[in-house]
Model the fold of this input.
Amino acid sequence: QVQLVQSGGGLVPAGGSLRLSCTASGNIVSINDMAWYRQAPGKQRELVATISRSGSTNLADSMKGRFLISRDNTKNTVYLQMNSLKPEDTAVYLCSAVLVGPRGSKLLYWGQGTQVTVSS
Done:
C-alpha cells in the first residue's frame, strides 16, 4: 500500500535547527508536487513550502531566509530544513505529495504529522 512516513521533529531551543523528512513507499510510478504544511493550536493550517518534481520551490514569506525545501527523487523523499527556529514555529508539521500509480492515477497523500516545539 502507498504511504508517506515522516521523521524528524522534536524539542529544540530558540535559534536551533531541525530537518524533517518524508518518504513515500508502495506501488509508485512517480511523485509530482510535494509540500509541507503546519498547524499550530487554535490556528488554521498553513502552507509552508512546495516543490515540484523538477525542483521548483516556493516558500511562505515568514519562512524565507530560514527554511529550505528539497527532494531526492531516487529516495522518494522530501525534506524541510529549518534553521533559526522561533517559538512561533511551534506546530504540527505535515507533508503531502501527489503520487502517480501504475495506471496513471494521481492521488494526494498525507504523512502522519510530527510535532515541532521551539522553547525560549
